[in-house]
């Protein structure tokens, strides 16, 4: 495999290598779209879709969490977001925002599932990458604002906590180089990392292709990595899995405290992307089996009841698009087919388990959608001529998505991932956008405005 990776790097500038890579994170636009002038409105009805939109955040530069991280209190009354001044709570009835923890060095991670505590980390100052430095993990009560120290790790990151609030889940890579060397890295006006790489003609590549080059280099590096848990009560650190592959997207099931899913990062067409493992380190297994060259799958997420694992599937890359699902208890599979313009950087599912949403993408991304810059609602039907009584649950069931566009994202620069999620009642979709020139957190109503 090491020699294969070296060969891959040597052949990076082959014809296929110049196609945008499907990778963790996302590709971006070649040029930023024009931004509307003036202050962002607080609320409006989208002129093209008729759906109401609310700007939730007050501070420019505010962001939500990655699309599958848990952000709601157990009572579903509050949500947590990030802002330039720290961590904030959002009242889900009024959209009122209040400060919770102040200080830009407080890195919000997730909400607990059983308690009203938000978990965040503070990285020690020092030289080198933040991922290589020690971190202290804290929990803050969203009502009383009391803070307690939970754990400390020498390196890596904590990405999740299990369903009964007893274990933290983390990953670490020893000696991994940053995706972009500091002397070449920059930050764009939306606070997103920029990437620099030259093509075979010596000219700079656009964001999508430059990031693909850096991702391929990181995947080929082969550095020791670990998936680990920390027992919150005792502080015990347990290594579940060691590898020289690149581990990412580590997450606990929202309902099963002993089930973990994680991914093998890198170019999606080169990796066996999604893995499941038990919290004691047993029963490591793959979720999907490749059946063709350039078949890719990833950006995986659990249904909110924990019964299904869903993921973006393309057969092959950039040609045929699905949201694929695995029912964890039975092994039953459903693939939901979508049109090119309905593909999104990420997908998510509502509490009802059947309503999905896509956050769209620009023409540089893997779908190359000519009209894909929308947040859309997706609902699936069985194929028209399906003989449902004859179905064999050992085979894949096929459905087709019908989309409803909720908000026009034509002014959004997709270097910023929208990271959409449904509210606990399923009536709104939360997302991030720079459509008005700065990052803010927004909500769009699923029902059409009166």
Task: Please tell me about this protein's structure.
- The structure is a single chain.
- Strand 12 (186-187) and strand 13 (193-194) form a beta hairpin.
- The relative contact order is 0.15.
- The protein is 5% helix and 38% strand.
- It has a single domain, classed as Methylamine Dehydrogenase, Chain H.
- The strands form 7 sheets. Strands 20-21-22-23-27-26-25-24 form an 8-stranded mixed beta sheet, with no helix packed on it.
- The protein is built from 2 helices and 30 strands.
- By secondary structure, the chain is mainly β.
CATH architecture: 7 Propeller
CATH topology: Methylamine Dehydrogenase, Chain H
CATH superfamily: YVTN repeat-like/Quinoprotein amine dehydrogenase
Number of strands: 30
CATH class: Mainly Beta
- Strands ordered across the widest β-sheet: 20-21-22-23-27-26-25-24
- Report the C-alpha radius of gyration, rounded: 21 Å
As a percent range, the share of helical residues equals under 10%
Helix/strand-derived class? mainly beta
Task: State the low-pLDDT regions, or none.
Answer: 11-35
